[in-house]
């Protein structure tokens, strides 16, 4: 059932998805104001997860998977910063790309 707000007609699921996207945007803005790199990664990972949920709500599966992967890579990036492992996340990501 479409719902009209300010002349924009969307389904309830679409309004909910865009609302989640708005929260993701606020979380991302908050992340960029942080000084601590660990906190920055944590907030951006949560933000990417929210973006992924938004895309799922809009039936954009490829975008949802991409943002979900970004959330996972961001969450793991702080843990993989030891000697010799800095290229490992990039190698894992690039190996998933089609040739």
**What is the radius of gyration?**
16 Å
The order of strands across the largest sheet is 1-2
The proportion of strand residues reads: 5-15%
* Average pLDDT: 82
End-to-end distance: 42 Å
Given the helix and strand composition, which structural class is it?
A: mainly alpha
Helix content: 55-70%
Instruction: Find the count of extended strands (DSSP E, 2+ residues).
Output: 2
What is the number of helices? Answer: 4
- Please tell me what the overall shape is: elongated
The major sheet is characterized as: 2 strands, antiparallel
**Which residues sit in consecutive blocks of at least 5 with pLDDT less than 50?**
none
Multimerization state:
single chain
Order of helices and strands: EEHHHH
Layout of strands and helices, then pairs:
Layout: E1 2-5, E2 8-11, H1 12-31, H2 37-57, H3 61-77, H4 88-95
Antiparallel strand pairs: 1-2
In short:
This protein has 4 helices and 2 strands. With 99 residues, it is mostly helical. Helix 1 packs antiparallel against helix 2 and helix 2 runs antiparallel to helix 3.
Description of the structure:
By secondary structure, the protein is mainly alpha-helical. It has 4 helices and 2 strands; from the N terminus they run E-E-H-H-H-H. The chain has helices at 12-31, 37-57, 61-77, 88-95, and strands at residues 2-5, 8-11. The protein has a two-stranded antiparallel ribbon. A hairpin with a 2-residue loop joins strand 1 (2-5) and strand 2. Helix 1 packs antiparallel against helix 2 and helix 2 packs antiparallel against helix 3. The longest helix has 21 residues, at 37-57. The chain is elongated and about 45 Å long.
